[in-house]
Amino acid sequence: MFTLSIKDINFIHPLFNYLRIFFITPWYDFHENHTCRLQISKICGVALIVLKIYCIVYSANDDIVVNSIPKQSITQKFISLGVLCTLICLDVVTVIKSWDIENWKTLFTNLQTVDQKLQNVDDLEKSVWKNFYLSFSTKQVIFLLLVVYQMYILSSTTQLSPIKILFLTGSVQHFVEYLVSILLNCLVQVFKSRYKDLNARLVEIEKAHISREMKNLVQSYRILSENVHIFNSLFGYQIILIMFHFGIEVVNGLNSIFISFVISDVQSYYGYILLGSACVFIVMMHNLLIIIIPIHSTTQEGKRFVDLCAKLQEEVSEGSCEAKSLSKWATISQQYVPDFSAAGFFSINKTLIFTVVGNVATYFIITIQLNESEYSKMSKV
Transmembrane region positions (predicted)? Predict the structure, then answer.
């Protein structure tokens, strides 16, 4: 399993089993094609969420936290609460979506069907550096190191225990968000690999068997399009919450840096605050980019299939049987151009990055104005 190429969907089983521990993926055996203790998984999933919320509330009852709340600005209170609520919502949605067995089953059954059509079953990854699990393990280690360093910084500046910081900053839920981002990236790369294969086979198609081969290619193209719709259904709300969390977390970091200039008591910790904000920014930017950029490039690969069909029509004699067959399948393929969306609210492409950056800038300016207004009132008093 660990040496399989991304071209064979069976490579994902170890990742799938690992994510099952965090209730990101369902308790489902794809080899035997049946659910595994679904009711127990629902009870355990709900219990895990309740336990996480209890740990957050318990950690917030610390005297250090209670005494520090009145000293915080209104923007700090609002943003911190917003971060925790967003991460909890993401956790809840992820667990609920893991119970949608039918969509998960259809997703992987479809991919197995496409792999059989493309003859990619048991395809091995020859390059060690391109091995998915090597990359996955490396990213996890880097993520955990950044989180540990952030906890060290916060523990040094607040005198809170690292365990309480872990829950108060939402780092536990943040790890789940990170794993969800990795899974999204993995599935999108799976789609992209198969669209590339379809495009390569369409370029090399034999004119003598054009009707039969076009039928097989367009069938695979249709199945992949169906999988994109399932992907939107399973992960649309998570993508929205990840994008929102990115925006509010970046504003939180910038706001903390700004406040450290205003409050003299915090200026001594400016370097720590800057490094902590940088760690969060790196992680959040990574989570956002590994979703949006691959989705955009996968959409372009999907559209290229339709363009290649149009070019292929120009190479056959007009009015021939091959031309009629090509015209038929090209028209059908146009109906299945991939469209990744966030639960149907908006399409996902690289322009979203600039939209998010613009929103971050807007809300940061608002927090500056609120902070200045608040501190000017305090100085008058």
Answer: 132-152, 172-191, 239-263, 269-295
